[in-house]
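Mods, move this if it's the wrong board.
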Amino acid sequence: MIKNFSCLILLSLAILCFSSCIKEEPSKILLKRSSQFKHYDSTKIKVANYIETYLNTIYESKDLQYVNDNWDSDILMYRQDRFLIEGNKHELLIKYPPKILGIRENKDGAFYVKLAMYDKTDLRRVLELKILRDPLNRFYFKDVFGENLKEMALYTNKENTFYYHPSIPRDTLLEDSTQYFNQKIADFFEIPTRPITVVVLRDFKSYHALIGYDYSIELNSDIQQGGRAFPAENILISMNATPYYPHEMVHIYANVNYKKAHNWFNEGIAAYFGGSVGYSLDYHLRKLANNLEEQDFSNIPENRNYGKTTSYIYAIGGLLVKKAMDKGGKEAVFKLLSYSNTDDSFYLAIEEVLGVNKESLEEYIVEEISQYKTK
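Not the wrong board. Structure tokens:
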């Protein structure tokens, strides 16, 4: 009995010792700091601590009001920290914490912080944050996107607003096309037209300069044009040197009633109406069809296959929307958009709307795309 008790004690001590040797994963974001910090005064240290605290608090509280209270923006109303967060999950920032490369104090009392963001060991982007202090000496972020817009040429055309990069001349004809498409897509979704703010830029480089990025991995891509939409603010950013960018406008309208739509159908309807990277949906389908032997349509929707100009999520997503439109009109498309953003919902949607089950999806895609072959 005593021997067994002694063994039990020894076993418990061994377990305790082993447990203490296991390194616990951190539960908070702990920003890395460059060697510059050994020269910094207490105020700059407080700036760094403020950023670290903010990054942790926004994930813990999930309070949009708290986010916006910490930012001052001249144009953004929703998630004013969108360019800081860029959709990164809390767990990623904990495991691969951002690094403050340096802090510079300007003559006007503003602090400019260079912050590097990582994805595992890869540098994803370097951004410059602007931080100010209010009359009570509390820190807050200033949105550089809104500030930089002031340097662009501003025009209005009916209810729409256009900001032009200084290197791009105004194009009223394409502004009129934007106005026409705005009405067209509003009629399709059966909702009132929305006043759209269009930011006209030349390429990715001018976009990154506008939002305060010194570097982004996107700048290494062969494709240097595209667009973004911020539906909550009715903002459309064109990086194609044109005020007419229908693809992103579709996202603004689809977001009104279908915020939780599956990504493939969300991008699909935008490609159906507005093409992708400046090319029509038919162009992308012909490209896939003429190189069919090089394609792999298995494991969709996980397999998005982002190519140089043609990606599955846009081309095949657009094809599925087109087939739904042919089969049941806009009501069938609305039904596709009503499914949530999970793989199970994707398969359920195509089976209920198109009559295609998961097992026959690859064969169905090959058959439909083959019809676009031109060689």
